[in-house]
Amino acid sequence: QKEVEQDPGPLSVPEGAIVSLNCTYSNSAFQYFMWYRQYSRKGPELLMYTYSSGNKEDGRFTAQVDKSSKYISLFIRDSQPSDSATYLCATAGGYNKLIFGAGTRLAVHP
Amino acid sequence: DADVTQTPRNRITKTGKRIMLECSQTKGHDRMYWYRQDPGLGLRLIYYSFDVKDINKGEISDGYSVSRQAQAKFSLSLESAIPNQTALYFCATSDVGEKLFFGSGTQLSVL
After folding, report:
1. In terms of DSSP bridges, do strands A19-25 and A4-6 run parallel, antiparallel, or are they unpaired?
2. CB burial class (10 A; 0-12, 13-18, 19+) of residue B58?
3. Is residue B103 a contact partner of residue B4, using CB atoms and an 8 Å limit?
4. Is A21 helix (H, G, I), strand (E, B) or coil?
């Protein structure tokens, strides 16, 4: 079993839709949770960062962590074509050693 | 200018050749990393370095070596390239936390 599982998609939605991206992880010691966004032929860029459980909101993006079920979510409201990218979840227990999910490819069509 | 610069952007080489991928950064971070990305497998850590005198193996270090020439420079070498090392390679940096900053990647093809 992989330490972080993520559905690779692809996920295709119309502009304006609410998008839900999800990951599960196996190690209950993980405390740091991140979402990275990766455009085609570019490096991943940090989108959201949370520590422990709870929600964090930044504009149209909300990151949610449920440690009891080992579940990580990213919600995108009012999705735009510019949101089309691959989204990678990542988690760590410390020492900068992140473990990444495989990434979910998202396409938002006008 | 990019904070994390990787060269080359693309490289095609033959089995058995030695190649080097280079990374330089202007972020002033002590910590540098090399990852490879394969479809369906995500990003996997090859090597990481917390300062100039510190080198650590990651999850998949076999067949690779690294050199930390300076705080700002971290290079990855494939001593004898093989086809299953065909992948997208990323260099990344971080400060003391877990937030990584990535370069634009090097697409390597080994024929």
Report:
1. antiparallel
2. middle
3. yes
4. strand
Distance of CA A9 to the CA centre of its chain: 13
pLDDT greater than 70 at residue A93:
no
Q: Rounded distance, CA A94 to CA A7, Å? A: 25
Backbone angles phi, psi at B37, to 5 degrees: -120, 125
pLDDT digits (tens, 9 = 90+) for A53-73: 788 999 999 999 998 999 999
**E-state strands within chain B:** 4-7, 10-13, 19-25, 31-38, 42-51, 54-57, 64-70, 73-78, 87-94, 101-102, 106-110
Half-sphere exposure for A72 (CA within 13 Å, toward CB) = 32
Q: Residue B9: closest CA among chain A residues belongs to which residue?
A: A41
CB atoms within 10 A of CB A99: 21
CA distance B83 to chain A (A): 21
Indicate the SS3 state at residue A42: coil
Higher confidence at residue B87 or residue A41? B87
Q: Which residues in chain B have their CB less than 8 angstroms from residue A32's CB?
A: 98
Instruction: Tell me which H or E stretch contains A108.
Output: strand A104-109
Contact A19, A75 (CB under 8 A): yes
Token pair listed for A37: 């966004």
Structure tokens of B35? 């990852």
Residues 35 through 74 of chain A touching chain B, CB cutoff 8 Å: 36, 41-46, 49
